[in-house]
Design goal:
The complex is a heterodimer of chains A (1084) and B (304). Chain A has 1084 residues and is α/β, with parallel strands linked by helices. Chain A has 5 domains: 32 residues, no CATH class; 53 residues, ADC-like domains (N-terminal domain of TfIIb, Single Sheet); 340 residues, Rossmann fold (3-Layer(aba) Sandwich), CATH 3.40.50; 186 residues, Dimethylsulfoxide Reductase, domain 2, CATH 3.40.228.10; 169 residues, Barwin-like endoglucanases, CATH 2.40.40.20. In chain A, 26% of the residues lie in helices and 15% in strands. In chain A, the strands form 12 sheets. In chain A, strands 4, 5, 6, 7, 8, 20, 21 and 22 form an 8-stranded mixed sheet that branches. In chain A, strands 32-34-33-39-31-37 form a 6-stranded mixed sheet. Chain B has 2 domains: 213 residues, 2-Layer Sandwich (Alpha-Beta Plaits); 27 residues. In chain B, strand 4 and strand 5 form a beta hairpin. Classes of the chains: A alpha/beta (1084), B alpha+beta (304).
Chain lengths: 1084, 304
């Protein structure tokens, strides 16, 4: 540097000689400041990715410099997120590059007191060995005289946070190994969505997509904390609001969602069916329904069999109830003279016996098969288009809801009549030919012992109002994990095979033919092609080994004999029957209901594999769990062998997430993971490879499914399987290996192969359609060229219903797709969810079945009668119409019926899982308050991806409960202080927020207080606290086995909870005072 | 030169021919309190996490702007009955009148009368105002604070010596010293990003576009329209805060649309640049010094 330059660079010189004489601007600039550049501009590359938190699916740009991720930001090109990210998405740099992530494999030997480091290869071989050993020891060739070919000794949990390709390999390998207890978060979050929407419309996914909310005239958010749990998706609610839409939030508490709503309606937790049923009643009696729509597209006119009896006739029961096993024979619910393949099936005598022993398909989660194919009915129902026949669906519906009056809403829900009327007015004024309304819900609806029926209630209402399949109308199921829709579609679920094909059942589905006979052959619709979907799946899994002669290796699939759901598995673990457990991105030790039972189950395992970022509670309970503190368990006496494998982050692997609106979005690997961190794709592939090597010389028939498996994927850097190759297998190919373009190309003759029929087309023309990233600014509002949605890239399902019977849009303002008579094809903004060339006036000839039987107005093409179902003549285990039942734990009697609770709910009486006394019985007032749980914006589910992330943890640093000032006064709770919350299961402590956002309600003439609790905490991590799930009982919806955690009862008292054994003593004292036994709460 | 001029010498907001002055318009009527701005800011600027403090101030656990919090979301619960509920139990302590002013009382411990309308939960993301007349800049003795070519006010971390003069000078209490490092820190309006044509991290992340970044003149027009729209829609309490070039800081580079008095959000109602009177103070001091000098001279002269 020359002297002159040196002098000129001196600020004082610049100040004296330049324009900035005061030295407050340019003259004061330092060299460092002069050289400042945005680090994103200096990155070596920008990698396209997708946020790993909730299921909005915000696109991310990952900036890489010197093989390190230096920044992660929203991708402005995305039509879903438009470049925005919530605090969690904004923290994903810290999540993926922060110091909280483990880098090495850890091993805890049986009875060991500390972790040990072992190398990755050794750990993989040890796990493979454990799988083979446990499988051999627990193999069941037969059960009750029927071939099952499976093991109940191994279970797996996790998948909703993983890629579709990873879920695919998990399900494929474990099924081939005969493992049936494969589950993931979708079970405990949205399984009831699949049954509820599937039975109503034929598919289990949200009927609309997030951007479409901007077209809504009224948005009812109920059972969802939309703004907090899906903040970036909420921008579309704000768009609608800016265009003049009315936003209503119905929720027990006033949340950040309520703050932005035009109307907040506080409701007693667990009473939404009474509320929705009353709106249905209002719509019917005030004749506010969209009659033309209802006649054209719903089953309002169908005639139901004369043996059907309603809950009005039987005091809360439908016809066909068996007190003996608490289940329904649904045959009397059917349309007049129509055969059904009921959710609970009942076609052979032996099966009837099994049913009595609780071994039937009743508990096999069958209603979840309606995820992409409605319940099966086999002949044409009779119709009365005048809707006056007393046995037609319309009249039955009217009678069923006649007593759901505004007065009843006040009595049950605690909502004043005037407020109820306002909701009705907004909704009905904004529905019809020219206007549409949307319902948005999440787990506030799904997680109940009548969860599936909550969703059904909204479906009925939206069908009556003509809001399905139309722009701005629909039901928006808000899912909360990056690929929880994907982990249902490519299911890591016990009851499903990819594409909602049901897992075969031992008692009636011994071969492919009987399987297809039992679950397929609907009169109408695309489910009639299910054999093609099934054979193509079998070809994808067993390739050349799958031939027509051997039923395409159908026998390679293990059989179900009942429920093998997450909670059944936990009970089996406690009982010592399930010995090995994989946890992949899921944390049940704090994240599942009755966390204590979860840990007690894990303590009985032989081995446990945990794959996660950090040492979550499910990995460390044996050394520092609550049972160690209480002295119930001693580390030295716990024999469970624990393997901890550090997982790769979304930036370190390629694959697809399926967002909450069925949109598959590909994310590219930005960097290779360091240390022992590996993707789940890597883990499953290599685990399978090692097991196949170990079994290579076996001639044991039970090993054939594993050895015959197609398990040959190209490997990339770091021996990482090529995720695109897996997605290609999922998409499928023809006999020549050419990629298929649509599921309509699938055949049942073994000439096509397809790993998940509803995803067929994602590799259309050999191009990864999920990786398409055409900016939304260069497309219309549908943005069809951004990624790919199932089915067939349709964004609004059932969009045929956006046009009238003749194919004309109901109104110009609400046009979406329509019939172009000149071209003889359906056209419009969206891809038609209908056969393109099928004219509106098409009517099939007599006797035609399957797809050809769909008329030109059968908008619900997966339904066996082509209609949206106001009444479900088949498909559900707990009734054809939603009925208000009280939650399992409730302070109030059901004023509508003598039968208090869902008579078919699944209970699990056990010393770890006691229930509360019935209202009115002695001891009922020991747990007087209503509790509900929810998410905060700043945290994620059970906390594994937020409590360890300092930028998120500091925003909500402690577990707290929210109570109203009246309750605080009643119980002496101090704002900012501590409270102890007690149920029959456990006692936890929380900081107290006294807030007017928690309003007391007047129900049945008395005041009820509600307590709100976020459920994100647990004892590990940077931000710690007790887990709300300690309080929950295991009581399940009978259709899909989802737990009831959104409405229960508890007591609250000031101060911190007792430590050590005193905690148990407190819980016991409460139980004794309430007089609880193992039989409490089991009454029908 | 842009419309504002600095009356007291606190830098020249934007020079001739330079880029237009930029700023933030924070529309709190669409804020969902998600705190994406806080996190995006921290991620971009690598600001230290600053501790797990459960403040029990509604959902605000950041407390306020500081050296380690450059965006801060305030949560204000305004006591009104919810959704026309009348549980018939009476609200504890009912009987006195709530003037809607912020108080030091615990939420729920205050007073309130039933039937006065809806409950409100106000949320607002606060930030450095990048004042036209910036006292922090005026008092900085080292040249660490400077006015950028975009009209924003930025601390240069390599120059700041931690003297702390700027801290009491700020009329909003924004700029703050980081304890373990001694230097002062605050929002830079992402000087490094806007220099490369990017928007600041907080504005980019904001899910509902509550935080908008752009040319200040254009933002002011947009804000006026938004206030008018809201008022037309019946939100009579909507008003702008800080945008007026005639205010005590000659107009803020970051201004707000509020739904209540600024005090409710913890913002000063009428801030004045603390160096406003600096010139006249120096003049007075000069007069006084001269007078003293003259007096002293006169005294000595008188003895002679």
């Amino acid at each position: 540097m020359g002297v002159r330059t040196w002098i000129e660079s001196w600020p004082v010189y610049r100040q004296l000689t330049g324009e900035d004489r005061l030295g407050l601007g340019a003259a004061a600039k330092s060299d460092r400041t002069e050289d400042l550049r945005a680090r994103t501009e200096e990155a070596d590359r920008v990698v396209k990715s997708v946020c790993p938190y909730c299921a909005v699916g915000c696109a991310q740009n990952v900036y890489v410099k010197d093989e390190k991720v230096v920044q992660i930001e929203g991708d402005p090109d995305s039509p879903v997120s438009r470049g925005r990210l919530c605090p969690k998405g904004s923290a994903s740099l810290q999540l993926t590059t922060g110091s909280a992530r483990q880098e090495r494999v850890l091993y805890r030997r049986p009875y060991g007191t500390e972790w040990e480091e072992i190398d990755l290869d050794t750990a993989m071989r040890m796990v493979a060995h454990r799988v083979v050993r446990t499988r051999n020891e627990t193999w069941q060739e037969e059960s009750e005289g029927r071939r099952v070919a499976r093991t109940l000794g191994i279970a797996s949990l996790g998948g909703a946070t993983l890629d579709n390709e990873e879920n695919y390999l998990i399900k494929k390998l474990l099924t081939a190994l005969g493992v049936v207890q494969v589950e993931n978060q979708a079970r405990v979050c949205h399984s009831s969505t699949v049954a509820g929407l599937g039975t109503s419309f034929g598919r289990g996914g949200a009927t609309m997509f997030l951007q479409d909310l901007q077209n809504s005239d009224c948005i009812v958010i109920e059972g969802s904390n939309f703004a907090e749990a899906h903040p970036v998706g909420f921008q579309w609610v704000m768009e609608a609001k800016a265009r003049g839409a009315v936003v209503i939030h119905v929720d027990p508490r006033f949340s950040r969602t309520s703050a932005l709503a035009d109307l907040h309606v506080p409701i007693r937790a667990g009473t939404d069916i009474a509320f929705l049923g009353a709106i249905i009643n209002h719509v019917l009696t005030e004749e506010k329904y969209f009659r033309d729509y209802v006649l054209a597209f719903t089953n309002a006119a169908m005639i139901v069999g004369e043996d059907f009896r309603d809950t009005e006739d039987l005091d809360g029961l439908f016809s066909g109830f068996s007190e003996e096993d608490g289940s329904y024979d649904a045959s009397t619910w059917a349309y007049d003279g129509v055969e059904v393949a009921a959710a609970s099936g009942n076609r052979d005598q032996l099966y009837e016996e099994r049913l009595r022993q609780n071994l039937g398909t009743r508990k096999s989660g069958r209603p979840e098969q309606q995820g992409s194919g409605g319940a099966v009915i086999r002949n044409a129902p009779r119709e009365d288009p005048t809707l006056t026949d007393p046995r037609c669906v319309f009249q039955i519906l009217k009678r069923h809801y006649a007593r759901y009056t505004p007065e009843m809403v006040e009595e049950v829900c605690g909502i004043p009549r005037e407020t109820f009327q306002r909701v009705c007015d907004h909704l009905t004024e904004n529905s019809g030919r020219d206007r549409t309304s949307a319902f948005c819900y999440a787990v506030g609806w799904t997680q109940h012992s009548v969860g599936s029926q909550y969703i059904r209630a909204a479906s009925i209402l939206q069908l009556l109002l003509g809001n399905i399949g139309r722009p701005g109308g629909g039901i928006q199921a808000l899912r909360g994990h990056a690929s929880i829709q994907g982990s249902s579609d490519v299911p890591t679920l016990f009851d499903l095979l990819p594409g909602y094909l049901p897992m075969p059942h031992a008692h009636e589905e011994q071969d492919l033919e009987t399987y297809v006979l039992a679950v397929g052959h609907p009169r109408k619709g695309f489910w009639a092609e299910m054999e093609s979907y099934m054979v193509s799946l079998l070809k994808a899994w067993w390739g050349e080994h799958a031939t027509a002669e051997n039923g395409y290796c159908f026998d390679h699939i293990p059989r179900l004999t009942g429920s093998h759901s997450h909670y059944d598995t936990v009970m089996a673990q406690i009982a010592g029957e399930c010995k090995g457990y994989f946890l992949m991105g899921e944390n049940p030790a704090v994240g599942s209901a009755n966390s204590r039972a979860q840990r007690m189950g894990m303590a009985e395992l032989d081995w446990l594999v945990v794959r996660d970022f950090s040492l979550i509670e499910s990995a460390t309970w044996w050394k520092d769990g609550p049972e160690i503190e209480s002295g119930e368990k001693r580390t030295e006496e716990i024999g469970t062998e624990v393997f901890f494998f550090p997982a790769a982050a979304h930036t370190e692997k390629s694959g697809t997430f399926t967002n909450t609106n069925r949109l598959l979005q590909w994310h590219d690997r930005a960097v290779t993971p360091s240390g022992d961190r590996r993707s789940d794709l890597w883990f499953m592939y290599h685990l399978g490879r090692i097991i196949r090597e170990v079994l290579a010389d076996s001639d044991d028939p039970k090993d054939r499914p594993v050895l015959d498996l197609t398990w040959d994927y190209p490997l990339e850097e770091g021996d990482e399987p090529d995720a695109a190759a897996v997605l290609r297998e999922i998409n499928g190919h023809d006999a020549e290996g050419r990629p298929l373009s649509a599921y309509t190309e699938l055949r049942d003759d073994g000439s096509t192969s397809c790993g998940c029929w509803i995803y067929c087309g994602v590799f259309r023309d050999g191009v990864n359609q999920a990786a398409r990233r055409k900016p939304h600014t260069e497309q219309d509002w549908i943005a069809a060229e951004w990624a790919w949605a199932w089915p067939d890239n349709r964004r609004v399902l059932y969009n045929r219903a956006s046009a009238d019977e003749n194919g004309e849009p109901w109104s110009p303002r609400k046009s979406l797709v329509w019939w172009d008579a000149e071209k003889g094809a359906w056209t419009g903004h969206d891809t038609p969810d209908f056969e393109r060339g099928k004219a509106p006036d098409y009517r099939p000839d007599e006797g035609v079945e399957g797809v050809a039987a769909l008329t030109g107005t059968d908008a619900f093409i997966m339904q066996a009668d082509g209609r949206g179902w106001l009444y479900a003549p088949a498909g559900l285990n707990d009734g054809p119409m939603p009925t208000h039942y009280e939650p399992q734990d409730t302070p109030f009697a059901n004023p509508l019926y003598g039968h208090q609770r869902n008579p078919t709910r699944l209970t699990y009486p056990h010393e770890y899982n006691p229930y509360h006394p019935d209202p009115g019985s002695p001891g009922a007032d020991v747990y007087p308050y209503v509790v509900t749980t929810y998410r905060l914006t700043e945290h994620f589910t059970a906390g594994g991806m937020s409590r360890w992330t300092p930028y998120l943890a500091e925003l909500q640093p402690e577990f707290f409960c929210e109570v109203g000032p009246e309750l605080a006064e009643e119980r002496g709770l101090e704002h900012g202080g501590w409270a102890t919350i007690v149920t029959a299961r456990n006692a936890i402590e929380a900081r107290v927020l006294v807030t007017d956002r928690m309003a007391p309600l007047r129900v049945q003439g008395r005041v009820v207080h509600q307590i709100g609790m976020p459920y994100h905490w647990g004892p590990n991590g940077y931000s710690t606290g007790d887990a709300a799930n300690e309080l929950m009982s295991i009581v399940l919806d009978p259709n899909v086995h989802i737990q009831e955690v959104k409405a229960l009862t508890a007591d609250i008292r000031p101060g911190r909870r007792p430590r050590g054994p005193e905690r148990l003593r407190l819980v016991r004292e409460y139980r004794e005072r309430a007089g609880i036994t193992e039989q409490t709460g089991l009454e029908v | 030169m842009s419309a504002e001029s600095s009356g007291n010498g606190s830098g020249t907001p934007v020079g001739d021919g330079g880029p237009a002055r930029v700023g933030f318009f924070t529309d709190t009527s669409v804020c969902i309190g998600c705190k994406a701005c806080e996190v995006a800011c921290k991620e971009w600027n690598a600001i230290p996490e600053d501790g797990l403090d459960f403040t029990s101030m509604s959902f605000d656990n950041s407390g306020g702007l500081g050296a380690d919090t450059w965006r801060h979301v305030a949560f204000v619960e305004q006591r009104e009955p919810l959704g026309f509920q009348d549980p018939g139990v009476g609200r504890p302590g009912a009987g006195t009148v709530d003037l809607g002013m912020p108080s030091f009382e615990l939420p729920g411990a205050g007073t309130g009368a039933d039937g006065r309308g809806e409950f409100r939960w106000l949320m607002s993301s606060d930030v450095c105002k990048h004042c036209t007349s910036a006292a922090c800049l005026d008092v900085c003795p080292t040249g660490a604070l400077f006015r950028t070519e975009f009209g924003t006010v930025v601390v240069q971390e390599d120059i700041c010596n931690g003297c702390g003069y700027c801290v009491p000078a700020c009329p909003y209490g924004v700029i703050d010293k980081r304890e373990d490092d001694g230097r002062v820190w605050k929002c830079t309006l992402c000087y490094d990003r806007i220099g490369d044509g990017l928007e600041p991290a907080c504005a980019k992340a904001c899910p509902t576009d509550s935080i908008q970044f752009g040319d200040l003149d254009e933002l002011r027009e947009r804000a006026e329209r938004r206030v008018a729209d809201l008022r037309e829609a019946g939100v009579s309490s909507a008003r702008l805060y800080g945008e007026d070039p005639g205010n005590g800081v000659d107009g803020a580079g970051a201004f707000f649309l509020l739904l209540d008095e600024p005090e409710v959000y913890g913002l000063p109602p009428d801030p004045v640049v603390t160096t406003r009177d600096l010139a006249s103070m120096w003049a007075h001091a000069g007069v006084a010094a001269t007078a003293l000098l003259v007096g002293a001279v006169a005294a000595f002269a008188g003895r002679r």
